[in-house]
Amino acid sequence: MSGETVIHLAQQFFGERERVLVEHGSLSASAFRFDSGVCGLRLKNEQGELVLLPFQGQQIWSMQFCGRQQGMLSMFAQPNPTQTYLETYGGFLIHCGATVMGVPVPADGDTHPLHGELPNAPYQRAWLTTGEDERGVYLALSGEYEYIVAFSFHYVARPEVRLYSRSTRVLVSITIENRKRTGMDLMYLAHINFRPVDNGRLVYSAECTPEHVRVRKSIPSHIHPPAGFGEFLQELAEHPERHNVLEPGLAFDPEVVFFIDYLADGQGWAHTMQVHPDGSADLISHRPEQLNHGVRWISRTPDQQALGMCLPATAEPEGYHAEKAKSNLRTLPGNTTVRFDMEVAYLAPDEARAMGEHIARTTGSRAAQ
Q: 252-303: per-residue pLDDT in tens?
């Protein structure tokens, strides 16, 4: 183990020409600016790279390992400098919340922006850290976003994305500190958008039954489904296993959402994979004791290909009042902090096979093997 070195970032470091800021062994971080004006940070190791937005939501805009782009395919070639969620939608990992998240339902009295204030929040501070832990040498991006609304909220969000030398596994965490002396409403969701592939298999640590993999039948106001969509949802509600193989003909247009009851392994982690036809896989792992709701979002349209195979969350994304009525709204006491941990990864075929066996043991089923 070794102590961390901290490099504080300033927006002046980000110009039209990409420049290396840090080299730490085989790891590097370079700064650039998209044509749109948004600051971009490229973290690289021997296996691939991440592109992050240090001052706009601390999003992971894209992730690529072993030559494969793992993030969603969207209409946006680059992020736009806006806080409006749907006007810059295409990131691989988007933090949602923290006072509210999900879809606003005006009929219920919701007036909040889609997925809250965190997705494109203007971070006041950002920094890089280098160090070594039990996993090895790493390079990480972190920062602080302080959100204050008089008489209502005062919190600080601190995400971290940690990339390791020679690794295709990335650790992601976020802490939320309530700086008020009284409790605050807390809702959080990690919108992690992989790219679906035809005939990819979904393997996950949950029982695939209508009771534990439930289909959302409500339709958000910004979604306009085609004829026959309701019948497709009913079929999936009765037979959720129908979506476990992403056959090209399945009508995930414009989107389908599932609510999943995840099981944790002996170390407290739940796992979800998309296994590609070549045997490699995409992976998201989370801790159900921290994020006790698993949301699955699939969208396959002519303009958008996204597989949110697990969006770990504190609640379902049905809007503030709906989740409050279901007792899913959390309270973060005054002067306290909560932390959420996740891992995203590319797995080679042998790693994917081992993970499939591990998931099967967790669920007590051989279906994942």
A: 988 999 999 999 999 999 999 999 999 999 999 999 999 999 999 999 999 9
- Structure confidence by residue, pLDDT tens digits, 128-139: 999 999 999 999
The pLDDT-based confidence of 366 (bands split at 50, 70, 90) is very low
Domain boundaries along the sequence of the chain: 2-198+283-346
Q: Which CATH number is correct for 2-198+283-346, 3.30.420.10, 2.70.98.10, 2.30.130.10, 3.40.50.1240?
A: 2.70.98.10
Task: Read off the pLDDT of each residue in 357-362 and give the average, rounded to a whole number.
Answer: 96
CA–CA gap between residue 162 and residue 344 (Å, rounded): 10
Q: What HEC string does the chain produce?
A: CEEEEEEECCHHHCCCCCEEEEEECCEEEEEEECCCCCEEEEEECCCEEEEEECCECCEEEEEEECCEECECECCCCCCCCCCCHHHCCCCCEEEEEECCCCCCCHHHCCCCCCCECCCCCECCEEEEEEEEECCEEEEEEEEEEEEEECCCEEEEEEEEEEEECCCCEEEEEEEEEECCCCCEEEEEEEEECECCCCCCEEEECCCCCCCCEEECCCCCCCCCCCCCHHHHHHHHHHCHHHHCECCCCCCCCCCEEEEECCCCCCCCCEEEEEECCCCCEEEEEECCCCCCEEEEEEEECCCCEEEEEEEEECCCCCCHHHHHHCCCCEEECCCCEEEEEEEEEEECHHHHHHHHHHHHHHHCCCCCC
